[in-house]
Automatic annotation (TrEMBL):
InterPro entries: DnaJ_C/III_chloroplastic, DnaJ_domain, DnaJ_domain_CS, J_dom_sf. Pfam families: DnaJ (PF00226). PROSITE patterns: DNAJ_1, DNAJ_2. SMART domains: DnaJ. It comes from the Eukaryota. This is J domain-containing protein. GO terms for cellular component: chloroplast. PANTHER family: CHAPERONE PROTEIN DNAJ 20 CHLOROPLASTIC (PTHR45090), J DOMAIN-CONTAINING PROTEIN (PTHR45090:SF4). Residues 14-81 form the J domain.
Length: 144
């Protein structure tokens, strides 16, 4: 199925169908199907007049690959499929896990910003101390 075409108004019913693999497909099978479809539907190689269609398919192929190749996203997707929600699933949706990662990244950015501020102040303090230390040393030499 990776090389086949889908009816124009009806697409595959799941990311597995879209990539043309079984739901028990391995990571290797997912990668192979993705590579084959990505080469076929990449917008840069689309026939004249079909670039819009190929772009839409390529984006969907990319989303399917990103979802199914990531064990955590795949588990969420499979859970949604079991509930009948697979048509609304998006690999780009925000989950609680994504929010926790974003919070950690924000905390890390703030920490790094504070650390670099401390380093700048420390370097400034050292440079002014060196200047002052040099001045004091010259004054001692001159007065002796």
């Amino acid at each position: 199925m990776p090389g086949g075409s889908w009816p124009p108004m009806m697409g595959p019913s799941s990311f597995y169908d879209f990539l043309g693999i079984r739901e028990t497909g391995t990571l290797i099978e997912i990668k192979q199907a993705y590579k084959q479809l990505a080469r076929k539907y990449h917008p840069d190689v689309s026939p004249p007049g079909r670039s819009e269609e190929h772009t839409r398919r390529f984006i969907r192929i990319q989303e399917a690959y990103e979802t199914l190749s990531d064990p955590e996203k795949r588990a969420l997707y499979d859970l949604d499929m079991a509930k009948g929600l697979h048509l609304a699933f998006s690999a780009t949706r925000h989950s609680k896990f994504d929010e926790q990662i974003e919070e950690k990244c924000e905390w890390k950015r703030r920490w790094q910003s504070q650390l670099s501020g401390l380093e700048r102040r420390s370097m400034y303090k050292e440079s002014t101390n060196n200047v002052m230390g040099g001045q004091l040393q010259r004054q001692r030499i001159e007065s002796s």
